[in-house]
UniProtKB/TrEMBL annotation, chains A, B:
Its EC number is 2.10.1.1. It comes from Rhodobacter flavimaris. Pfam families: MoCF_biosynth (PF00994), MoeA_C (PF03454), MoeA_N (PF03453). This is Molybdopterin molybdenumtransferase. Its cofactor is Mg(2+).
Length: 393, 393
């Protein structure tokens, strides 16, 4: 058996960074940039009023001074007349200031009678002017190293960036295997169950930025497996579930090897989900998950999500966080146990409580869980109140 | 001025829960269920082996006993012969057990010579059999009240649920207003800036489950505003930015009122983003955000996201969490200040540190921020190390 960390390092070795593509800014949410953009302009492009009010020369900014309003400057329509001492300009937020070296006095701080403006007796020190280039200057690079947020897109729009170079979305082909499986909506025979792994793996992959091809279920025979593998042509990552353990019915590894898989097979020191198969198959990475739905989901969280991150140039480490244990737990055996658990907000760290039953057949408990409590292999019993690690679900 | 909480309550009063629609399970990720589903079967549908090994009658489960292997049971292909005492069945994980009242002994715990199986001297107490209906019984309802996760979809697949009744995705029409705005990719004139609000609001809305219609920029004249509002026909929510303050150039409210908006306009006791306009316009709710991009984004977080949640039947409260203050901050004035801040993991709660500049013109700082530190109106100075509230970005 190898550790989860070793297995993660091995599956990540199978991953090659995807090619890049150019997309419109509007399509950027959640994508990962492959090259920096440069601001195409300076923001603000001009010194601009930060408030609605009146612009006047600094020399006129005296308590109680009286000025004449000569015109106005609005966002998009500056005032371009000449101004003499004692003259002011009505100005709105975002409008360019008429000249350097002025001050904007807030509209609520002045009194106005016709064109005559009177400043207050107590003046603010605040000029209420945004200097040119305060946010960014032309040429400033921007290269966030995370999945793009709405705010990233807003900043790049303001930089006048209309297109982005991003990593292509990984194409994931998903194959469930097993004579016992039928699709939802069908009527299962007496020994059959509904295929659920495909739906979990498709949604996890899509949430991680992938395009998913859900392939037909492969029966436990070589001809069926060959047919379904042929449908995965062109995928970046082929994910199977089932047929990856050591039982006699596990044909997936054999057929994949016949089709060119440089096969690696590991028993991983983890619960649930001991067996994992992986390799490269043509231009694709291949990940063979256990057939048990809880094991497949936990393995997808621990191995598939990092592979999808690495394909897109993102950090692939597990998102390990800390919480306070909400119930005593016994010692672990020779495998790290990823216990389905529930989080509750605490005064400081959240409290994490594993479900009473950790049977890997219970999808209901998996769906209810918020987190995988990590109980390292060989660890002793842990008491309520101790700090423990978890991975959010 | 009204408080943020009052304003939130008021905008939520404008929202009507959307109609429902039926979608295939495969499209369920992130959607919100409007009605429960019921499990169409019992899971496991039969008592099944939890491990690869050998099934035998409980009466034969004696230390060192010798049995004859009479056949095998695999997932999808049960053993349906008759068994006499002293006979065993090779069985694989997920396979139905041949009869009630048996035990599965793990393959690694026995020795086998031809068809002759010898049990170990020390027997486990574990039957390694999953009882029928351990996960869920036929008719069990499932009705999660959150955006559906991959695990929800897996559970419902296993329940043989092929279709879901969900709330329709809200259709959001986004309108930026202002003579000074041009779209990214254009060449701005000397007093113009690039429209960025549309891109932030579109991405925030999509991340919250909406379908977005990004409409043309409206110029600051009535004809242009009327034209663009007409393009919003059929939307559930119309979101404008710009033209919602009290300057003379704020025509949005006037035109919207001419088009039937029962207009509400509030100054909200918050920084940034004081002015907010809202109302109902035909069948749509309307939200008028400030034009300043930082203010628009913060207001979208505080008001637009809750409205989108409420449209889909989700809780609309702000996601307020706690952190340890990483820097001293001064007292607040008469408005609650949502300070752009950065989070760092701590030993317990994360540490939150507001950026030095809180100028609402700085999109670069907004993009870098992880969180809005909430500094309640009228609060005194807060010291490093105190526990404070924030909203994650």
């Amino acid at each position: 058996m190898i550790s989860v960390e070793e297995a993660l390092a091995k599956v990540l070795e199978l991953v090659q960074l995807l090619r890049t593509e150019t997309i419109p800014l509007r399509k950027g949410l959640g994508r990962v940039m492959a090259a920096p953009v440069a601001a195409a302009l300076t923001q603000p492009p001009f010194a601009a009023s930060a408030m609605d009010g009146y612009w006047l020369a600094a020399a006129d900014h005296r308590p109680g001074a009286t000025l004449r309003v000569e015109g106005e400057a609005a966002a998009g329509r500056g005032f371009d007349g000449a101004l003499a001492p004692g003259q002011a300009v009505r100005i709105f937020t975002g409008a360019p200031v008429p000249a350097e070296g002025g001050v904007v006095v807030l509209q609520e701080d002045v009194s106005r009678d016709g064109d005559i403006l009177t400043l207050p007796e107590r003046l603010s020190d605040n000029r209420n002017i945004r200097p040119r280039g305060q946010d960014f200057a032309e040429g400033t690079p921007y290269f966030p190293r995370h999945r793009l947020t709405a705010r990233d897109l807003g900043l790049m729009a303001a930089m006048n960036v209309a297109e982005l170079t991003v990593y292509r979305r990984p194409v994931v082909a998903i194959i469930a295997t097993g004579d016992e499986l039928v699709m939802p909506g069908e009527t299962p025979g007496p020994d059959q169950i509904i295929c659920s792994n495909n739906f979990v793996l498709a949604a996890l992959s899509e949430a991680a930025g992938a395009e998913v091809r859900m392939l037909p279920i492969a029966a436990d025979n070589e001809a069926s497996l060959r047919m379904v593998f042929s449908l995965a042509e062109g995928a970046d990552l082929i994910v199977t579930s089932g047929g990856a353990s050591v039982g006699e019915h596990d044909l997936v590894g054999k057929v994949a090897a016949d089709l060119g898989l440089e096969r690696a097979f590991w028993k991983i020191a983890m619960r649930p989900g001991k067996p994992l198969m992986a390799g490269r198959m043509g231009n694709a990475a291949m990940l063979g998950l256990p057939g048990n739905p809880v094991s497949a989901t936990v393995c997808a969280k621990l191995f598939l999500e990092p592979m999808l991150a690495a394909l897109q140039g993102l950090p692939a480490a597990h998102d390990v966080r800390q919480a306070i244990l909400g119930a005593d737990t016994g010692p672990t055996g020779p495998r790290t146990h990823y216990m389905r658990a529930r989080l509750a907000p605490g005064a400081g760290l959240p409290t994490i409580t594993p479900f009473g039953s950790q049977d890997s057949a219970l999808l209901g408990i998996l769906a209810e869980a918020d987190a995988l409590l990590i109980r390292p292999l060989g660890d002793g019993a842990r008491r309520t109140g101790e700090t423990v690690d978890y991975i959010p679900l």
